[in-house]
Design a protein that fits this description.
- Helices cover about 25% and strands about 20% of the residues.
- By secondary structure, the protein is of the alpha+beta class.
- A five-stranded antiparallel sheet has the order 1-2-3-5-4, covered by helices on one side.
- β1 and β2 form a beta hairpin.
- The chain is globular and about 40 Å long.
- The N and C termini lie far apart (about 40 Å).
- The chain binds 2'-deoxyguanosine-5'-monophosphate.
- 2'-deoxyguanosine-5'-monophosphate binds next to β2.
Length: about 120
């Protein structure tokens, strides 16, 4: 059994505002929202980073995107648009070592990267 923070959320061991869960993925609101809509979609199985995915993860990776698209529609941000982000390891700014897709929307999000 995996002991990371998001695994505990997936299993309901620590509270989160869960919007969706199925056999492969779980979606919940980010605790520190960076936009009016900020949802995380995670694999139920604890894959540490995008650098660790393998061919056997193809179905779950597809499900992450499909669920993010559905939640964007449910949250009312699909028409104006939104951003999906997956941070990977140190240079990517990843803080939680469990793959997660950020769904951000509800305001103009500006340039993709902060200018140096
Ligand atoms: P990243 O930097 O890509 O690893 O993003 C981690 C995100 O996880 C960050 O936006 C804040 C969010 N987060 C961290 N701890 C918790 C938590 O306990 N609950 C929820 N809902 N979100 C969390």
């Amino acid at each position: 059994m995996s002991g990371g923070l998001f695994s505990k959320i997936v299993r309901g061991e620590i509270p989160a505002d869960i919007l969706y869960q199925d056999d492969l993925v779980t979606a919940f609101r980010d605790v520190h929202p960076q936009a009016p809509v900020h949802v995380l979609v995670v694999p139920n199985r604890e894959i540490p980073t995008m650098a660790d995915v393998a061919a056997e993860d193809e179905a779950v990776l597809g499900r992450l995107l499909l669920v993010a698209s559905r939640i964007a529609a449910d949250e009312g941000v699909a028409a104006r648009g939104y951003r999906l982000i997956v941070n990977c390891r140190e240079d990517g700014g990843q803080e939680v070592p469990h793959v997660h897709l950020h769904l951000l929307g509800g305001r103009p999000l500006g340039p993709m990267l902060a200018r140096k």
